[in-house]
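Dear V.,

Thank you for sending over the compound details. I've combined the ligand you provided, fe (ii) ion, with the protein sequence from our construct and run the structure prediction for the complex. I'm sharing the raw inputs here so there's no ambiguity about protonation or stereochemistry in the SMILES, which I know was a concern on your side last time.
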Amino acid sequence: MAPSATSVAPALAATAAGGVGHGSPADKTAARIQNQDGSPLYPEYMPFYDPLEKVEDLGYFEHFDPGHRADPRLPNLLANATRVVDLSPHVGTEIEGVQLSQLSSAGLDELALMAARRGALVFRNQDFRDIGLARQKSIVRHFGPLHVHGWAPHPVAGSPEHMVIYDHRDDLRVRRSWKGRSPIQWHTDQSPEPQPPGTTFICMLESPPAAGGDTLVSSSVQAYKALSPRFRKRLEGLTAIHSNNDGVTQELKNNGDKAVMRRRELVQEHPVVIVHPVTREKALYVNPVYTKRIVGFDQEESDCILQFLFDHIAKRQDFQCRVRYEPGTVLVWDQRVTNHSQTLDYPAGARRHAFRLTPLANVPIPALVEEDDGECAKDEARVQLGLC
Ligand SMILES: [Fe+2]
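Below is the predicted structure of the protein with fe (ii) ion bound, written out as structure tokens.
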């Protein structure tokens, strides 16, 4: 059910412009939709925590990426598109005129391919939030079996596969989990899984009234390509250990006997450079949240190389984009070719409410070490500067 809601102007808008009057700048400040009485727009998606809940690991499974079946011209996905705008050269595209809930199976195949190519796709004004838990899951299962998070809440209405993202003055779990440290934490979700996520959905239900709560996205394909060919060769063939032990520790420390521990702690070894199963693009597959050490390196060597790579991902804004949400925005992104971060930059106490559905995908495919695969000669910028 769509909520009946009215738009209320943010308090900031009334004060920032030096008084509110007819035609004042404050009148023109856009405000996101909220209920007048302060209640959530989507109460059935309020977070539910059960400290006794347990879930079995899925184990290994066969994965066939739907992007393999896609028509590379994307005729089904873009049949009704009115505008397609890249958010930055290397990552992120916004598509107008397409309702995700109306896509055919072929359209969803093409969605997987386009997400793999562009990293992140933004769809606004979606009815996806109003089609119910079962239909939402049946659409996203097209991309793989749905992940169940180890401790994050699911909706009070049920469905453990729906991971609820909720921050508001009446529930400080999110704020508390970032207490005393930067909320900017680049990562791919759940990389310690044996078959980590692929084409993932976030559906925004309610955003803070003014700006804020954006997602930052970085291309891992371009992060790899932006390294010198010799350094790329040093990384190929390496593996690294990913673990969610920090998250487990935080959950137990912050929530005590109310902590949710549905699943065991995860530790997994993955290639440092992976290949996307459909595009065959190489991507850097390490992140500062989950990647702990490079296998076979001494501690100082591993710390030094990983810190350089984490800084490389975080600092290189030339292959990042920033996704702004309105209620009804759906972000579809491919975790195998991107890192992302929350921002948590809006006023404390404001409500941000969303859910994530997270299909698991292939066992990460290692990039092959090649003596000379001609990559440098293909890089026009390096050729022009005589770097090959
Ligand atoms: Fe995330």
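A first observation: The domain at 44-384 is CATH 3.60.130.10 (Double-stranded beta-helix).

Warm regards,
I. M.
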